[in-house]
Amino acid sequence: MSEQRLFSRKNPWLWGSVGLVAAVAIVAMLIGFVWMPYSQSKKGESLWTFICRAAGTPLSAGPTLIPTTPPARPSNVIVTAQTMSADNPEQSIGRGGTLALRCSMCHSTQGKLPLAQSTIPNLAGQNSLAIYKQLRDYKSGHRVSAIMQPMVESLSDQDMRDLAAYYASLPVIRHGGTPAVKAPAIVDNGAPMRNIGACVTCHGEVATKAGAPYLVGQPQAYLRTQLMNFANGTRKNDINEQMRNVARNMTPAEIGLAAQYYGSQ
Amino acid sequence: MSLDTPQSQRAEAVAQKAEARWAIVVILIIALLLGMMTYMGLHWLTMPASRVETIDPSTLHLAGEFMEENLGSAVEPDGSVTVRLVGSQYSFTPQCLLIPTDTPITFRGTSSDVVHGFNIAKTNVNVMLVPGYIANFKTQFSKPADHVMPCHEFCGVGHAAMWAHVQVMDKTEFFKRAEKERRLSCVK
Amino acid sequence: MLNEDTRKLILAHFWVAFIAFVAALALGEWQMYIRSPLHSWIQNPELYYRSVTAHGSAMGYVFPTLVAMGFGYAISELSLKQPLIGRRWAWAGLGLAIVGTLTAMIPVSMGLASVLYTFYPPMVGNPFYYIGIVLVVVGSWIWVALMSINLHAWKKANPGVPIPLPMFANVAAAYLWGWTSVGAAIELLFQIIPAALGLKTTIDAGLARVFFSWTLHAIVYFWLMPAYIAFYTLVPRAIGGRLYSDSMGRMAFILFLVFSMPIGIHHLFQDPQVGAGFKFLHAVFTGMVSIPTLLTVFTITASVEIAARLRGGKGALGWLKALPWSNPMMLAVAFSFIMLGFGGAGGLINMSYQLDFTVHNTQWITGHFHLIFGGAIVIMYFALAYDLWPHLTGKALKDIFLVKLQLWLWFVGMMALTFPWHWVGILGMPRRMAYFDYSNPAIAPEAFAVIMSFFGGLLLLVSGILFVVVLARGHLTEKITLPEFRFSQAVHEPSRLPIALNSFGLWLALMIGLTVVNYGLPISQLLAVKQTSVPVVPIGAAR
Fold it and tell me: C224 vs chain A: nearest CA distance in angstroms?
């Protein structure tokens, strides 16, 4: 009994089981890698081509790069969660503070709380990637503004990063007058069947998507204008149509509700 | 019970035979199912994604196949239709797909951020969109209808609002429109 | 007879497992309520996903692992009739599992890791969530090693003697888990945790899904092992019968060991990062892994018939009446088989990838694995706990009525939960959504079914609470003198076995070899391509 050896040619279990498993694998491979892909291959394709395709050998970039005329982009910025990793944050904030003097006329250097009727966004404590991206878009003309474009014309990439870092470092100012206001459903849940995402799942409070600004404390009029502009396509610097997809499905009443809620927080 | 009496040996042999018969039935059932799958794969061309292609999800909007103006339904020279779409937190672009009846359709999609996926309700269209890769899916629709197209993979806290729509329209009408527009969709 | 310290060890495993189970059960039912038409849309959808993450992690990683570990220690000592070797290590393993569970659950409950138990990179949450899961797995690896060590010590003392079937199956389960967990461990240790710690800013999401699929399917077979061990080695004895065939049992466990790993890509049929050829290959081997289950159905049904005929049952089907229906084990195995039957049929549909296209990632899938795992498997966990309990506490379980009520509630609840789920899945209802617009005509037809499954879940919650109540009361009765614990006897107990059926070397070699064949190329191809690493999307930073 104990002299029986497992890995021995005389053990029928060894070659039996290995043989059976190998047979199943080989038949499955012949069907999956040769027969099926052959039946679906184009004429004149070599055996090797469709075997590799069935095996999933990665092809980089699609073979059909479609020429686009003219190249219309929503933005030139590559937005990821890592876009703003600064080497020296302290220094960046310091430089940004100096640069912010030119912004103070409208945005104040302390990011002072604007009035509800203001169409100027509140920058205190805003997330740095959102500020940086909008500055770049103003400069490249992807976001159109007769006031902002000349303001950013002379800024270098580092200047914009510094400004973003400075404003992001300021403490958030809230209206704070009406803390008990319950958020309307459009803010908390959106409207799934109209593909309106919930504001809170990208714009802070519950979750923040890279590049999305915090909305709490933004003036009501500013928010309403921007949502309208996204809805009618006058503003389209949102990558992959993230905001246009939302705004075009919102009713004017819903736009009003969302703007009012964030404007009162 | 392990006494090696002739009687018990006979009983054991009977038991083993019954087992062996059952094992054969089981193997036949499985072989039948796998055979059906192979047959469908060979003759109905219903196969999962047929190639692996890679793409950078963070630069989709800068150049190439998945730029905004390339998304939607495009008529190919061979008369088939390619539907290109991008999944992002928390919408598909275009968010309403326009598709002709009785035409070979190829979906080409990818994700700009996290893993998404979609199924078109009451059809067999079901695709995963994994960032870094381009998904392909071939299908055909037989009758005009409106379908919902939810994202069916957890993609973050806003996942529940990620519903797109699909409008399948009559072939002739679709191709008439396609003469005027380079890319078609039912986004308003 | 169990050693006093081993008893404590097993009880500790079971109690931690069952507490985690009831907590996760309550979360599950809360989720059913929140997303049903009975509740308005949840104001903070993040809470829902937090709960799903906790529910999945507890039910998937903690509960079944600890049941398998505790049961495994019991099997080792009871079937080998030798004191458990390495008891201190076993306590250390349990300690790791508990520390891991707490480490993982703290960030989850704070909303810092709502990534669901299947992780979903490139979303990456708080590192402690993943580290906690790794600790649980490492704790279970200690168990894997101990099972192997105990078996080898016994073999040395008993050369050539057939390994008792319970221990053979138990060690098969341990090896299965050891190899299964490697896929997720690689994903966690080399991809996700470095990203969560900020050491890396990109991750290959497609590759991560391939690694996870390695674990994701076979883990279900690991969950299933204690239930199957109970089928073969407890059920026939408990209902007064004999096991129809010992060697068929061994074959079934061997087939699980070989075939449950190299099939995971069937979870990726719709994924773009794996070639169609590999999808077909994995579908074929998925077919192979249903063979041991179908063999088990035959063997156990035959064993049950033996019990009935020993009790005087007659006729082609008349013997069913002679079965001891008032015996909880009988009830459990009958319920388990019904659920296994439906769940298995659903599984064959998922395996055929053309059919899978209509149901992939819909509520059908949720229904499918709740029916198989939550139903067929967990009901056998209950049964084996009831069976072992007097031998762990030294006291009788007296609430036989409550036990039967509990099993009935679980069965009815699970049917009411999962059948509507399957149905809405066919209608196209997606998984993992915190709320639905039931007023929309496209979704309205699903509303009633969702309400039904909520009530199914309610029965399950009641049943789960009843389960721990019965076990807790089992500690409170007076001491009794117990007969020696026995496993089932086979009709023909083997006196000698071919070495292949009495050792694991060949099967482990086949298991690893087949995994290399079926996973080697998909993994190495993706490893070789650098451009598929995509930016990490951090989770849990609200502001």
Answer: 23
Work out the average pLDDT over A94-123: 81
Q: Which residues of C carry out catalysis?
A: 217, 221, 368-370, 431-432
What are residue A67's phi and psi, to 5 degrees? -65, 135
Q: What's C79-114 look like in SS3?
A: HHCCCCCCHHHHHHHHHHHHHHHHHHHHHHHCCCCC
Query: Is C506–A14 a contact, with Cβ atoms under 8 angstroms apart?
Result: yes
> Mean pLDDT over residues B72-97, rounded?
96
Would you call C333 an interface residue with chain A, using a CB distance cutoff of 8 Å?
Answer: no
Give per-residue pLDDT as tens, C317-334: 889 999 999 899 999 999
DSSP state at residue B153: S
First CA to last CA across chain A, in angstroms? 82
Backbone phi, psi, residue A193, to 5° = -75, -10
Nearest to C281 among A29, A53, A206 (CB): A29
- Residue C137 bridge partners (DSSP): none
Residue of C nearest to A61 (CA): C531
Whether the Cβ atoms of residue C278 and residue C522 lie closer than 8 Å to each other:
yes
Give the model's confidence band at A1: pLDDT under 50 very low, under 70 low, under 90 confident, else very high: very low
User: Is the model's pLDDT at A119 over the cut of 90?
Assistant: no
* Closest CB from B114, B117, B120 relative to C122: B114
Q: How far apart are CA C176 and CA C220, in angstroms?
A: 11
- Cα–Cα distance, C412 to A257 (Å, whole number): 46
Say whether residue C542 is in contact with chain A using an 8 A CB cutoff: yes
How does pLDDT run across B4-50, given as a tens digit for each residue? 567 777 777 888 888 889 989 999 988 998 888 888 877 765 566 56
Does the pLDDT at position B2 exceed 50? Answer: no
Tell me the whole-structure pTM to 2 decimals. Answer: 0.94
Number of Cβ pairs closer than 8 Å across A and B?
Answer: 134
Check if the beta carbon of residue B131 is closer than 8 Å to that of residue B57.
yes
Whether the Cβ atoms of residue A83 and residue A129 lie closer than 8 Å to each other: yes
Could you tell me the CA-to-CA distances from C121 to A125, C184, C202 in Å, in that order?
Answer: 29, 12, 10
Q: Which of A207, A201, A189 is CA-nearest to residue A254?
A: A189
